[in-house]
Amino acid sequence: MTKQNVVVAETKSGLAITVSVSNSSSLFSTVGHQIKPPVVTTPTAGGYIAISPNKQLLKKLETGGMNAWVESMRASSPTHIKSIPTSLSSSIQDYTSWMHHHPSALNMFEQITSASKGKQIVMFLDYDGTLSPIVEDPDRAFMSEGMRRVVKNVARYFPTAIVTGRCRDKVYSFVRLTELYYAGSHGMDIKGPSKSSKNKKVYKALVERTKSIPGAKVENNKFCVSVHFRCVDEKSWSPLADQVKSVLKEYPKLTLTQGRKVLEIRPTIKWDKGKALEFLLESLGFANRNNVLPLYIGDDRTDEDAFKVLRKRRQGFGILVSKTPKETSASYSLQEPSEVMDFLHRLVEWKKVSLQSQSRV
Ligand SMILES: [Mg+2]
User: Fold this and answer.
1) Cα–ligand 1 centroid distance for 43 (angstroms)
2) Which residue, among 87, 97, 15, has the nearest Cα to 48 in the 3D structure?
3) Which residue, 49, 52, 66, 227, is most buried by CB atoms nearer than 10 A?
4) Domains present along the chain, CATH in parentheses
């Protein structure tokens, strides 16, 4: 038997994304913003347990950090262990040690729900590899109907956001649930189900300044204000740009990006999924850390930014979706999207029961 320790860099899927926000034909000069493509590791087919090379884990094992379960397994079945090839045996040890540090969120379900006592769970979900399987063609990364149903139910009980490297419209076309928040392009592009008062001042100022320009339409989204100019005559684009610029001067913390016939005014933040998580929590009214328990489920290297934020804030739990040991700041793990579905389903059922028991009191 050969050692199954091959790591495949997934370069064809939509996860290996470079998001570039720069537009030479922009009405305004915008700063180019590039996000490094995340690398996703996948196990080789047919392997018993595929292990990615992890020096830290190996070092831990060398220095005696062996999991007690493996020790007792050895003690109780010496002949059996002896018969396992060294490579496979060390793979099991690696995996067991990793699972000891990042136990299954399904096995830790009671601990997670009891940590949410008196707090609002806010659910953050990556899309590819978390809600949908990783597929060759990123345009075909569909989620199952079962997964859609359970995510819809989760959103009934908990504020729920999809945080993805994909563009927001693309991921929305897969998920098609209006009750969720969507943070696309690693959070650079956020849209929520309802409007907030946060942007009201900017919105009012833009409405006021652009009302003399026929066709200009200002829209107050939850996290950004959009000025649509698809119905504005081209000769008025320059005066419109001047008006928008004059509003921006009053709000130096805001930045402007340009989409197709739309100008979007949003906070200046160096975006990653961690910043998106913080921004979403604050915007949803959960700036107070004592009343919220964020749960973030993701499988990407880019999700580590969000896991790190939760660790730093000592708040909530990161859950890594992975079949193989990986260096991660997540607290818990789930093996694959089907386990994510089980976890979300259990969360909904738990919430239903706890609401019923509350109403009986
Ligand atoms: Mg992913």
Assistant:
1) 15
2) 87
3) 227
4) 54-101 (no CATH), 109-188+271-360 (3.40.50.1000), 200-267 (3.30.70.1020)
83 alpha carbon to ligand 1 midpoint, in Å? 38
246 Cα–ligand 1 center, Å: 39
Q: Which residue has the higher pLDDT, 65 or 24?
A: 65
The model carries a pTM of: 0.60
Q: Residues 167-172: what's their mean pLDDT?
A: 85
**313 token code pair:** 């804030």
Q: pLDDT digit string (tens) for 94-112?
A: 889 999 999 999 999 999 9
Query: What's the CA gap between 155 and 149, in Å, rounded?
Result: 10
Cβ burial, residue 223 (10 Å; 0-12/13-18/19+): buried
Q: What distance lies between CA 148 and its chain's CA centroid?
A: 16
